[in-house]
Amino acid sequence: MEDNIKKRKREYMREYRIKNKDRLSKKNKEYYQKNKDKRRNIDREYYEKNTKKIKEYGEVYRKRNKAKIMESQKKYNKENKEKIRKSNKIYREKNKDTIRARKKEYNKKNQIDISIRRRRHREENKDKLKMVNKKYYIRNEGKIKRKQKKYAKANKDKLKERGKEYYKKSKKEICLVCGEPALSQFCSRRCRGISNSGESCHFYIHGMSCLPYPIEWNEMFRKSIRDRDNNICMRCRKPREILKAALSVHHIDGIPENTYPKNCISLCTSCHGVVEGSGKKTEVFQPLFEKMLNKLYGYKYEN
Which DSSP symbol is given to 243? Predict the structure, then answer.
């Protein structure tokens, strides 16, 4: 009997609240506005006394009603996107220092957990992160390069010191030529070249490695030809200052044994490739170069 009476009372109260919603809400608002301070003090006292109970009840409720809570949150976020953004911006601007302090404290307490999570995330999403980074770099290539240049100009000394320290720490082996510390067998290109020169070179053939060229064909001879032509390509007339590589010395008759100034001319790499690759270096280019040298330096040739 008592249970049936209670159920009837509950049903009656529900019906009464549904019918008189507006009237009850107005009364509650008026009462709350008149007695704000009292209600706050009562709520605080109750919360201080029963904090554990409230937390336990909240956890139990969340576990039971996860799906409902998630759906209600999604609906609210969709309906009030702009309001949420504005409120978040205002809150961040007002409480910048407090947010930073909280982040620092959290990071100090949970350094190990954060590092483990980041590693797991990187390992699980390698391909996604690569694609995202590529897209970001393609969109903002100019901005990234400008920032890098500004940082490099502002912090030249720091970057040099860091590079020197890293280079010193990473040196573990000893150079085979000079005996100084090095990253690999040699400390520089110079030492590598010295080690691969002479008898240790795989092209060495008992002092005759320059064949089919004679012994006269050396760096001093090539330098004299370049100086004679004022370090200018005799075909396209480009000076050495404009060109990336040094001028090459070409044999006019195509015979490397005839190494004398009358038979040599200085050319740039592109023109030298054209002359050698055309297949007509003796038919077309030989008489042309002979006439040029005859006018400039007075060399005589047999027709």
Answer: -
Domain boundaries defined on the chain: 219-297
Is residue 261 reached through a cis peptide bond, with omega within 30 degrees of 0 on the bond before it?
no
Angle at 210 between CA 261 and CA 176, to 5 degrees: 125
What does the alpha-carbon distance between residue 253 and residue 221 come to, in Å, rounded to a whole number? 17
Q: Phi, psi (5° rounding) for residue 265?
A: -145, 150
Closest CA to 294 of 255, 258, 252: 252
Cα–Cα nearest to 248, from 274, 230, 266: 266
Global pTM reads 0.35
Which distant-in-sequence residues (6+ apart) come within 8 Å of 224 by Cβ? 261
Strand ranges, E, within the chain: 173-174, 181-182, 248-251, 264-267
- Residue 295 has which token pair? 């006018």
Q: Tell me: the pLDDT tens digits for 66-77?
A: 898 999 999 999
Q: Are 240 and 232 in contact (CB under 8 A)?
A: yes
Euclidean distance between CA atoms 277 and 281, whole angstroms: 8
Residue 265 and residue 232 in contact, taking contact as beta carbons nearer than 8 Å: no
Tokens of 257: 């044994």
Question: Pick from 245, 243, 234, 238: which is nearest to 285 by CA?
Answer: 234
Segment 167-192, tens digit of pLDDT: 766 666 788 888 887 777 888 888 88
The two three-digit tokens of residue 232, written as one number: 């200018």
Distances from the Cα of 68 to the Cα of 57, 59, 94, 175, angstroms: 17, 14, 33, 71
